[in-house]
Q: What sequence folds into this?
């Protein structure tokens, strides 16, 4: 029992961190679009930055939640070519039944040829095919080439008929994925409420009620940014405990992008609102760092912080193994490479911050050699399967580790080497309280496992310095 309690303490969850589109071809299609738009009464995206072809896909900002979307960002470097089979049947010969065995990129391309009605029909007839497509999607470069190769009317058809697909494929700009995911959120919420009202068995009601609760937390997490920085819904999957990713700022255009990867007990239902607030606290501190240190005669640099619950986080009974970390590393690598594909030649300064088991996941991803970032910071880490910071694919070796007093996870070596040991080769991140050398402001100390992201702390300030290219100014840094 003592061992169970120790693991629980070591990896426990953090406390509260304080389109005018070309309307599709018939009146019936227009009514479908109008009906779907009408359902989005809670979550909206302001239309001022949407292209004309996407603007009518979402309601007006007056309806509630703030957010932004843009079609003017740099895009990936893949050839702008639709992904099609060399021998593609004519539209007249190509019905949804013929696509029942089609998968991957070819499925996306051939469904596009059917238009909104055909896509909708296929989704109804073969829902498991969409599940399989999203579980094992085409490479981000393939998705990016397919999406950019579509005309505006085809993109509008996909956003209308299959928002779940558009919202959850890596390689599509986040601003456009968010439009789709907000739509999918609203439609799914309405569908679940209707199914609950029609009566189901106790077991079915329990599952539907849990999904509804997950969706409610997603709504709150996105709406929480009203009056502050724009928030985007980068990913949404309410099934099996849920996965969701909320972004503060626009990663399609930001100069600095930081992924925050959480650990145990950080499911969507339990912690998405708090983790999004943590991302906004880091966003605010990064903006402050840039204001104080950047040349005021130059254009202001932009940041985006990503509250990434894109994997099934472990609980007390699964935290002792690496299965969740391995699977999560797959998802994180796919997500980051998808963003890189969207950005093309205009790459951001990219950072990962892993907390607790989230650091274990990040270490697995960075040790593979197929993912690279500019900086990596781990706080409250229970150990590394890698023997040295030099084993990680981090540009310039900018690997940092923060270990607070009274944190039972650090120094445990539960998952291998102690990243805080001098032999590991990571830079130390000051977390014990210090004075900011530039402003003279006193920065608070962090204690235990859950205070690394406290606003006003030395720890959060140092993470903001690292994520904006000022790692040399980190207090407590060791070489």
A:
């Amino acid at each position: 029992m003592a061992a169970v309690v120790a693991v629980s303490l070591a990896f426990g969850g953090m406390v509260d961190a304080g389109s005018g589109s070309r309307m599709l071809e018939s009146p019936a299609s227009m009514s479908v679009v109008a009906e779907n738009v009408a359902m989005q009464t809670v979550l909206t995206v302001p239309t001022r930055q949407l292209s004309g072809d996407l603007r009518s896909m979402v309601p007006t900002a007056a309806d509630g939640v703030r957010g932004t979307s843009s079609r003017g960002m740099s895009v990936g470097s893949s050839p702008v070519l639709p992904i099609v089979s060399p021998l593609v049947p004519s539209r007249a010969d190509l019905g949804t039944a013929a696509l029942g065995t089609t998968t991957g990129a070819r499925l996306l391309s051939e469904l596009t040829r059917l238009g909104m009605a055909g896509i909708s029909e296929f989704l109804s007839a073969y829902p498991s095919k969409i599940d399989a497509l999203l579980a094992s999607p085409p490479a981000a470069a393939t998705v990016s080439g397919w999406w950019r190769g579509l005309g505006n009317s085809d993109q509008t058809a996909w956003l209308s008929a299959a928002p779940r697909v558009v919202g959850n494929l890596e390689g599509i700009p986040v601003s456009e994925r968010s439009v789709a995911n907000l739509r999918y959120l609203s439609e799914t919420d309405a569908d679940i409420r209707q199914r609950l009202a029609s009566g189901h068995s106790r077991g079915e009601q329990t599952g539907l009620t849990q999904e509804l609760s997950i969706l409610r937390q997603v709504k709150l997490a996105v709406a929480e940014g009203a009056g502050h920085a724009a928030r985007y819904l980068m990913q949404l999957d309410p099934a099996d405990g849920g996965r969701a990713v909320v972004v503060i700022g626009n990663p399609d255009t930001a100069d600095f992008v930081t992924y925050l990867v959480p650990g145990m007990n950080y499911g969507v239902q339990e912690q998405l609102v708090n983790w999004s607030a943590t991302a906004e606290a880091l966003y605010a501190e990064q903006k402050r760092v840039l204001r104080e240190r950047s040349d005021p005669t130059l254009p202001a640099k932009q940041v985006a912080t990503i509250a990434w619950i894109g994997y099934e986080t472990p609980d007390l009974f699964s935290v002792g193994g690496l299965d969740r970390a391995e699977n999560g590393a797959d998802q994180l690598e796919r997500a980051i490479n998808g963003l890189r594909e969207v950005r093309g030649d205009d790459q951001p300064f990219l950072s990962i911050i892993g907390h607790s088991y989230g650091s274990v996941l990040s270490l697995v991803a960075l040790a593979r050699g197929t993912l690279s970032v500019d900086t990596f910071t781990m706080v409250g880490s229970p150990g590394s399967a890698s023997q040295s910071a030099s084993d990680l694919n981090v540009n310039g070796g900018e690997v940092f580790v923060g270990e607070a007093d009274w944190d039972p996870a650090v120094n445990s070596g539960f998952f291998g080497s102690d990243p805080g040991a001098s032999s590991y080769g990571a830079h130390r991140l000051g977390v014990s309280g210090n004075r900011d050398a530039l402003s003279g402001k006193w920065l608070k100390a962090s204690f235990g496992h859950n205070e690394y992201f406290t606003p006003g702390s030395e720890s959060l300030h140092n993470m903001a310095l690292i994520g904006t290219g000022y790692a040399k100014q980190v207090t407590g840094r060791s070489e």
User: Anything to note?
Assistant: Confidence is low (pLDDT under 50) at residues 1-94. The first strand starts at residue 231 and ends at 237. DSSP finds 14 helices and ten strands in the chain.
